[in-house]
Amino acid sequence: MLRFKNLGSGSTGNATVVEGRDGIHARRLLIDCGFGIRQLQWRLEAAQLRLDDIHAIFITHEHSDHIGCAQAVAVRHRIPVWMSEGTHAALGAPDFDGMLCIAHDMEAIDMGAFSALPFTVPHDAREPLQLRCSDGAAHLGVLTDLGHASAHVLTQLAGCNALLIEANHDPAMLEASRYPAFLKRRVGGPYGHLANNATAEILRAVHHPGLSRVVAAHLSAQNNLPALAQACLAQALEWPDDAITVASPTAGTDWIGVG
Asked: What is the CATH number for 89?
């Protein structure tokens, strides 16, 4: 059994718990840790979890809304933390007191009840990785923070039963925003963030009968609206708008089963 719960998604912080069960035993991976410790604890409590219930942490890249309190949590609670060598270097090579594990593209992380497969993505970070999690029967793709979908990305999303996927901005809202020109270019560029229509194209490319849940994540508070993201993504899948879940920056999502 595989399920996940986003704890909050947006520029103010990102974290998602993926849980697999093998009989009565559960194993949990925290993907990103982009909050302060108190905020993270509060969000975990809302999921009926504690930090001691987390068995590993995976950091997708070094940006502050994803790294957050990862070092303090890993060291204090003796939780292994996975990240790429490039991400670790971009952070200044901090000391994780023996808890650091280096992740590599296409080298699976064994979580016991499920596996997590990192894959590289095009984003303006040192060596960003995203994840495909699977217990053998159910497959979850986690894809936030990228400027476009490479062939490698699309291959890793193929056959997923659920997707947590970035829908960062509406192009017209971004263009009309008060963002300076350089920031508009960065956000909308090939190594920035996915626009709603770009996410819709990804969904068209990977849509199959077994895809049953899509969560739109990392929406810009200034340059997108949940209803716009839902409508665009739902149209690509020929689903009703309300079939697309939107991850809230404050509340995330409910627990969602995969498969």
From this structure: 3.60.15.10
